[in-house]
């Protein structure tokens, strides 16, 4: 069987098991970056050296501006090729995975995590207050740490103003010119978040402005691109440093770390699959190291004072 024909079989096997956006990303990479090279080769004749030649082409690629693929994207391309061969080994008796023999291409690049302090966010929020939907959207993002897709999927029935909570159980995305509401990113993403009282009052105010809305209608009927544009507008107007929308989630986590909450409590609030993910944010407040040292000094001084008092009593 040729690689091209096996890809058709692979598509039939796994397309229905993945989220639509996950499948579209996978399919795009295979069709545009992998299939053109391997399509006519027979699956059982593709060797590790064939994969190495393909990797070298991907590494050497440059666009019209002289820019190549990032290390992270190279790694993603290789992983998609390896996944396809693994599927053939697991279910269709291919003897070995040539992509595994060839070794990985690229590496995961760690992205810098930026965040806003409360003061910076306040300046930004004042700058976008002229548009209600923008102001209340960013209030929810900053003060709850929810993801952008989770925000855009919210409906009135997700809020319980008696218990001061919001339920996160879905995510919004626009794919192939259609609005899609799907399950959240991971199982742990389904959660109920306790809202601060001021935010409850703000959301009540916002709901009062929504005329003709059903309880199941999206309360923020805008696109991700609209909010990205508003983010740029607010940063420019307020003159606070430019960050990405996902950095608002980091900002919320940073705020909770600074307030002294445990990694377990923070992970539960923001829907991290593991507290190991939460620990990655600990470096965002290096001033905590100074605070820790100061508290240790205080503890030591108290111990010395207690020892001196005991010596006096013994004397």
Secondary structure layout:
Blueprint (H helix, E strand, L loop, with lengths): L2 H12 L5 H19 L9 H13 L10 H22 L5 H5 L15 H10 L4 H13 L3 H5 L6 E2 L4 E4 L2 E5 L2 E5 L8 E4 L2 H13 L14 H15 L7 H13 L4 H8 L4 H5 L7 H28 L1
Antiparallel strand pairs: 1-2, 2-5, 3-4
Helix pairs in contact: 1-2, 6-10, 7-9, 7-11
Structural write-up:
This protein is mostly helical and about 325 residues long. The chain folds into three domains: about 100 residues, DNA polymerase, domain 1 (Orthogonal Bundle), CATH 1.10.150; about 170 residues, hpI Integrase, Chain A (Orthogonal Bundle); about 25 residues. It contains 14 helices and five strands. The strands form two sheets. It has a three-stranded antiparallel β-sheet with strand order 1-2-5.
Q: Give me the secondary-structure category.
A: mainly alpha
Domain count: the total is: 3
Net shape: globular
Instruction: Report the C-alpha radius of gyration, rounded.
Output: 26 Å
Tell me about the largest β-sheet.
3 strands, antiparallel
Task: List SSEs in N-to-C order.
Answer: HHHHHHHHEEEEEHHHHHH
Task: Assign the CATH architecture of the largest domain.
Answer: Orthogonal Bundle
């Amino acid at each position: 069987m040729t690689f091209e024909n096996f890809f058709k079989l692979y598509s039939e096997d796994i397309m229905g098991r993945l989220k639509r956006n996950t499948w579209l990303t996978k399919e795009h990479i295979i069709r545009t970056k992998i299939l053109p090279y391997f399509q006519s080769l027979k699956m059982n004749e593709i060797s590790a050296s064939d994969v190495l030649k393909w990797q070298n082409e991907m590494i050497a690629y440059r666009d019209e501006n002289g820019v190549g693929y990032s290390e992270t994207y190279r790694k993603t391309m290789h992983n998609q090729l390896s996944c396809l061969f693994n599927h053939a080994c697991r279910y269709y008796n291919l003897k070995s995975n040539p992509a595994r023999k060839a070794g990985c291409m690229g590496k995961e690049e760690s992205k810098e995590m930026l965040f806003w302090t409360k003061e910076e966010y306040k300046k930004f929020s004042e700058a976008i207050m002229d548009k209600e939907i923008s102001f209340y959207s960013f209030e929810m993002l900053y003060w709850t740490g929810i993801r952008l897709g989770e925000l855009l999927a919210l409906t009135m029935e997700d809020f319980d103003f008696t218990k001061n909570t919001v339920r996160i159980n879905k995510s919004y995305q626009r794919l192939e010119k259609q609005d899609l509401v799907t399950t959240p990113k991971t199982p742990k993403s389904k959660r109920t978040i306790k809202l601060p009282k001021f935010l409850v009052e703000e959301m009540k105010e916002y709901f009062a402005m929504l005329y003709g809305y059903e309880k199941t209608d999206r309360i923020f009927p805008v696109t991700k691109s609209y909010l990205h544009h508003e983010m740029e507008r607010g940063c420019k107007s307020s003159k606070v440093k430019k960050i990405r929308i996902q950095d608002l989630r980091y900002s919320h986590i940073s705020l909770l770390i600074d307030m002294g909450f445990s990694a377990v409590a923070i992970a539960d609030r923001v829907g991290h699959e593991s507290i190991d993910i939460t620990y990655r944010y600990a470096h965002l407040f290096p001033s905590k190291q100074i605070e820790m040292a100061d508290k240790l000094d205080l503890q030591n001084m108290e111990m010395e004072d207690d020892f001196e008092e005991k010596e006096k009593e013994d004397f």
